[in-house]
Amino acid sequence: MIVLKFGGTSVGSAQNLKKVAQIVLQTDKPKIVVLSAMSGVTNILQKIANLTYLNQGNEASIEVENLNMKYKKVIENLYNSESSCEKANILITDHNDTLLSCLDSDFNEKVEKIILAQGEIVSSNLFQLLLEEYH
Fold first, then answer.
1. What is the distance in angstroms between the CA of the first residue and the CA of the last residue of the chain?
2. Can you tell me the distance from the alpha carbon of 125 to that of 87, in angstroms, rounded to the nearest whole number?
3. Is the torsion defined by CA of 14, 119, 48, 101 positive or negative?
4. Is residue 10 within 8 Å of 38, Cβ to Cβ?
């Protein structure tokens, strides 16, 4: 068993995600794949968490929308099938809803962890959809 870990720059664009997929698919050994959040996403999520802590929900929701647009651009260039694009867009909508629900919550350590975890959750799920498209 091997562990393949890819950092934010490695998964920071559609082109890079496709390169990572090729590496993963060409590795014959049993493997665990670990992905970071896409490049820059953790900083945006930290900003969202900080704004939420400061009760600046309007500013935080703007950052959520900016992140949403970033993901949509990646989706446009990542998948070949309409089905994969639809699944990815549903994923991003769910992610967006999760973040927006956090903005309406009383800020605490749990809310902060939920916000910050979204980067790895999204990159991993988008990557899974990409691998499914190759099979």
1. 21
2. 10
3. positive
4. no
Query: Does pTM top 0.90 for this prediction?
Result: yes
**Residue 67 to residue 44: CA distance in whole angstroms:** 7
8 Å CB contact between 60 and 51 = yes
Instruction: Enter the tokens of residue 14.
Output: 């559609």
**Residues paired with 9 in a beta bridge:** none
> What number of helices (H) and strands (E) belong to the chain?
5, 2
What's the pLDDT tens digit per position in 90-133? 999 999 999 999 998 899 999 999 999 999 999 999 999 999 99
Other CB atoms within a 10 A radius of the CB of residue 124 amount to 16
